[in-house]
Design goal:
Number of domains: 1
CATH class: Alpha Beta
Strand content: 15-25%
CATH topology: Spore Coat Polysaccharide Biosynthesis Protein SpsA, Chain A
Structural class: alpha/beta
Shape: globular
Number of strands: 9
CATH architecture: Alpha-Beta Complex
Distance between the termini: 19 Å
């Protein structure tokens, strides 16, 4: 993209600000894991750099869970501008007795829009030590609840919660009102 995706403006508000505003409604704590703390200093959030640098998203997930004050955390990518409160609340309601609660759409699992417990810390660390860096690589080591699309469809029939901005073309489609969902 050529810039930090969290700072992309959608309808005049950066994605990170959109996410932060929603999280203030839902959660008592917001954690941002970034390599550039200065970019997000104006947000009322706890900001950390990776405890295990150079391990991509999995390292960021590990860091966020490590510093979380809570047993479970909703973890999301920084490039998802249309998160739905109702979908997040639905996932939260399914978290009991599971280490991971992850939605599955027709596109597959959505591990960067999921709930993770602190029980995932050691399995994540083990996956990293084994040089397995996909988020789902540690799933066999924990108790996972997959939420199928039909279960949350009525809360987000267009699956906008799972739209992310990865390319200039996708950004253009979003700005034209045609998200890539």
């Amino acid at each position: 993209m050529g810039l930090n995706k969290a700072l992309i403006q959608i309808e005049g508000i950066s994605i990170i600000n959109r996410t932060h505003l929603l999280f203030k409604e839902l959660f008592d704590e917001t954690i941002i894991v970034t390599n550039d703390k200065a970019l997000f200093g104006d947000l009322n959030a706890k900001i950390y750099t990776d405890l295990i640098p150079g391990r991509g998203v999995l390292g960021g997930l590990y860091t966020g869970l490590f510093f979380s004050s809570y047993t479970c955390s909703f973890c999301v990518a920084c490039d998802m501008p249309f998160l739905r409160k109702s979908v997040i609340e639905y996932l939260i309601g399914k978290r009991f007795d599971y280490d991971v609660v992850v939605p599955r759409t027709k596109d597959g699992l959505q591990p960067l829009h999921a709930i993770y417990s602190k029980n995932c810390l050691e399995p994540i660390k083990k996956a990293i030590e084994q040089e397995s860096y996909k988020v789902i690589d540690f799933y066999p080591m924990v108790k996972v609840k997959i939420i199928e699309e039909h279960e949350f469809y009525s809360l987000d029939p267009m699956r906008e919660s799972f739209v992310n901005v990865n390319t200039p073309e996708e950004l253009l489609l979003i700005k034209k009102g045609k998200p890539n969902c």
